[in-house]
Amino acid sequence: MKEVAVAVDAGYPDNADLMIDEQGRPTLKAHKSPGHSAGALALAVAVKDRLPERSLLEILTRTTRHLRWFRHFGPLSGSDAKLADPLERYLLVAFAYGCNLGAAQAARHLRGRVSAHELSYTLRKHVTVASLNKAIADVVNAYLRLDLPRLWGEGNAVAADGTKYDVYVDNLIAEFHIRYGGYGGIAYHHIADNYIALFSRFIPCGVWEAVYIIEGLLEQESEAAPKEIHADTQGQSFPVFGLAHLFGFELLPRIRNFRDLTFHRPEPGIAYRHIDALFGEPINWRLIEDHWQDLMKVAISIREGELSSITLLRRLRHDSKRNKIYRAFRELGRVKRTMVLLRYISDAALRENITRATNMVESYNNFAKWIGFGNNGVIADNEPEEQEKAIKFNTLVADLVMYQTTLDMSLVLNQLRSERQAVYRTDVAIMSPYQEDNVRRFGDYIYDLNAPLDGMEVCLDLGEGADAA
């Protein structure tokens, strides 16, 4: 903490973006994004124009046959018979609920290939929240092995945010959301820095979203191992900062009201030449030291599944002089948040990364809702577990669409290079798998389980000179 403060103080004269007024309130100069080069934009358009148009059901059929993520599904009761054709049934269940069509609407458009009862029965008797998490992890792992996502991000950072879905008023999870307006619940997503969704869950509108930041990272079962967590302004609670540190995560939230936050002094008596006006009361290191074993016990209990981080953070949300664990978490959180604030005001690249991450999760929210086009965006089921399945199926389908789009984009990039067009890694890095124009959501819902699976194994070849711009 001392090293960070000293470095920020020494760099203040050269920090043209930062101003500190007489009251010790920092102000950062706003920067306009330089945008992307003409070559990068032209390449993005060329790739978009050449992407093969596929129906949503065709994409699900191809990726399901290739990845076989449905291997985790099966009869919950040993007395139930297995499905005669599990691939087809689970594929159609994913389509029906991931696109929010529901059993009845999907069955109507599938022209007798499956009944509404068969779809709803399979959802309730063959699919659990746990098996859905494993299926999503299979898709994420396959996506991480592709070449193109490595140009978008290293997978070591994740952004967490929620978006509101409408539900019927008379069910257990429905609450009125003041910011969004209307009754509903929140789909809370964890999105990796290479665009893929690692984990999702459905929570009530009235809860404090920050308590779900850590839980999603601990529950996701993919090979992704992010070390940075980006969140919106709610993510800057002291206990959340402290708990993230204990698990080895670096919490880097979007900080809108940083001017009004307290920078805690590393020790009493320490003064700085340029930034001293920022600092308020010092850190109580003795409090952290005295309760360090208690903090570690809490972290181990969460890691071993004996305690939920959600339950803990709910209990640690309010100040209490008799709650010594809260005070210790608060003090540790003050240390971590002060260090993040110092880095935030001194590092323009860090601010850009935080903005990019939070914008990415907003883009994913829009993309996921575009995928879940059925029923006017309303989650029709009233049971909390089935609502959770609907959100996770939507995540599964969105990830499968991203997987197929990434394969198609890789093929197009290889074609452009074979035609001797310039393709640079820096230009490819601005692209995104959140493509919509090449995906048909409507029309005849036709699928072929025996169609050739061409182009499902693609190596992106950008050549040795692709780093030059």
TrEMBL record:
Q: Which GO terms describe its biological process?
A: DNA transposition
Q: Which InterPro entries match?
A: Tn3_Tnp_DDE_dom
GO terms of molecular function: transposase activity
Domain Tn3 transposase DDE: start-end pairs: 58-445
Q: Which domain of life is it from?
A: Bacteria
**Which Pfam families does the entry mention?**
DDE_Tnp_Tn3 (PF01526)
Q: What is this protein called?
A: TnpA family transposase
What is the organism field in this record?
A: Nonomuraea fuscirosea
Taxonomic path = Bacteria, Bacillati, Actinomycetota, Actinomycetes, Streptosporangiales
